[in-house]
Amino acid sequence: MDVPTPTFSTPAPPAISPACKPTVIGVYGVSGCGKSHLLNHLENSDHFGEDDVTFIEGSAILSSLVPGGLPAFKLLPDPAKHEWREKAITHIQDECAKSGKTGVVAGHFMFWETETDDESAPSGVWTQGDASVFTHIIYLDVPPPLVVERRAQDAQRRRPALSEAHIQRWQVRECEELRRVCLQNKIIFTTAAPQADAIESFIRVIQHSSEASNISRVQGRLDEVVAEFACDGMRRDAMLVFDGDKTLIAGDTGKLFWELAFPGDDDPLTEVFSSPLGYTYTAFLQAAFLYSALDPATFDQYCEEVVSLVSIRPEMLLLLREAAERRVPALVVTCGVCVIWEKILLKAGLAETVKVIAGGRVQDELVVTAQTKCQLVKRLQTVHRCCVVAFGDSTLDLPMLKAAGRAVVVVGEETTRSRSMEAALMDAVVNEGLKAEQWVFPDGALPRLAHHLEMLPVFRSSSFLDSTIRLASRQRVLHTTHEYAAKLLMTSMRNAQVCGLALQQAHADAGWHLATTLLPKLVDLEEAALPHVQGGQTTGYRIRGEEKTVVVALMRGGEPMARGVWRAVPGAMFVHAKKPEELTPDHLADRETVLLVDSVVNSGKSVKEFVQRIRSNNPSIRIVVVTGVVQSGALESGGVLGEILVEDENVGVVALRVSENKYTGKGGSDTGNRLFNSTHLD
């Protein structure tokens, strides 16, 4: 017969604000499955300290609150029982909030203790308070024969004898209803084997699964990836960042996975993301718990099958292989399962040159959301100083695309592309400043914003890497042309009436300004201990690797500015060099950074000669050209400095200003003559 579904109350507003809401984990399962025994075991083990977890038997709290204890409670009418249950769960929340502990509570969702009465139905005992208090629910997946055995052998409680079929029916109904209620109330739900180590693992994961701690772990993983690429000799100034599903591949690995797990049933991921959880961190964490509920062997099997069903788009494969040849690293940042994407790249022969940051199961410790992708792109730009090109296909990728230095919207087949993306993309382009291209698959398919292609031009892959490398090289050219301080400093330097010592001082001031404002953006800073004026020690900062830096004054015009630079890096070696050969191997031995300082860089030819000299002795040392003025033509594509920057990622330029004026001074207009009062000699 059909069994009526129990009804459950709509959750009331929480008594405690979400900002300070404690973590309260419900451990659920049918009566007699072993919840209380499990919690007693965990409480008495050495795995949890008294200061961080408290284990609570829900019925014990009721007994302590209700006058007359549990016997009196059982005699109450249902409305009164309901009120006392709400008081009990609120009491638990209050106690956890006061103590700061994680609460682990053994509770009941429904009772279904008879299978002989055709009119009987499960009796729901879930309350509004439960919906407001619980943050996580772990449902014990205990085999029905074991439940029957435990109920029969329980000497403390007399329970009706139930068949294995009824226990299974009870479990299925309870689990389905509890999962639905949890989704509606933004509670993380998972099933778990009843072993203590499995539950302990879940509790530990829950304790450390805050959004802030997740971001920290993801950023740490990104830093590891960048270091791995550097060790492998990949470029450090550029990074290609790809979404996975429907971007690198045409299909959706998550959908394929759950079609294998539950053929013919609804996709549980769709259920999660269409619930009130939306696409929040909590939703993606819930997805991770879904994967973790599967036993490891089954999980691995489905992952292997998914990998066998998908392939990277041929055009993407060509791009990634060319990027590998040109030492441009690539990173897949996806909300999907990490092991699946690692295996996809391994199958394509890209495992060494393309890395993955993704989630999967909770034990994988990473959760990737739309905001996670965006924050990783920003970290690549600000911390690792990378030029980032991002590829994505959906609204979840828009924050990442907007943050990237260059964005490519991947547009798939019309029948499978994201339907919500069109309007969101238009809004991002028109109102949020997104500048992007679109890569349409297959050729001839209808592009996005088809009537506004000027807003989203079609991507051309033929010269893509060339333009990306040039874009990356331009990030290593820093200047202050339009800043107030630069305008004040350059006034004295350009004044024909200022010469000799006064002009030398102006150049030295400019050198110090560049070394303290722009140079750290290329070289970075490091902490340095120093005595505090009030006694004791404190922390200051200096240019990173000061003792392993050499300041090279390109004679003679660069000498005054070089002295200003040297003032900012006093521990550096100072070298005068009129010709490249005057820079000896001894000057470069055991050095990390060379600062080539000249007052003016015109064509860049002399700088190129010095760079070649340095590279013949040290192929990897960082070189920074520091100058008062650099001609724009030298930096352009085809210009001497422009080509050096493209070919050598360890070269940067720091300038007070970039000038369109190609005039080369003579006599009274020559900077060197003005600096040393020798204008009459030319």
TrEMBL record:
Keyword Ribosomal protein: no
Annotated InterPro entries: HAD-like_SerB, HAD-like_sf, HAD_sf, P-loop_NTPase, PRTase-like, PRTase_dom
GO molecular function: glycosyltransferase activity; L-phosphoserine phosphatase activity; magnesium ion binding
Keywords, in A-Z order: Glycosyltransferase, Transferase
The keyword Lipid metabolism belongs to this UniProt entry's keyword annotation: no
Phosphoribosyltransferase domain ranges (all copies): 483-677
Cellular-component GO terms for this entry: cytoplasm
CDD domains: PRTases_typeI (cd06223)
Origin: domain of life: Eukaryota
A single GO BP: L-serine biosynthetic process
PANTHER family, sorted: PHOSPHOSERINE PHOSPHATASE, URACIL PHOSPHORIBOSYLTRANSFERASE
Protein name listed in UniProt: Uracil phosphoribosyltransferase
Highest classification ranks of the organism: Eukaryota, Fungi, Dikarya, Basidiomycota, Agaricomycotina
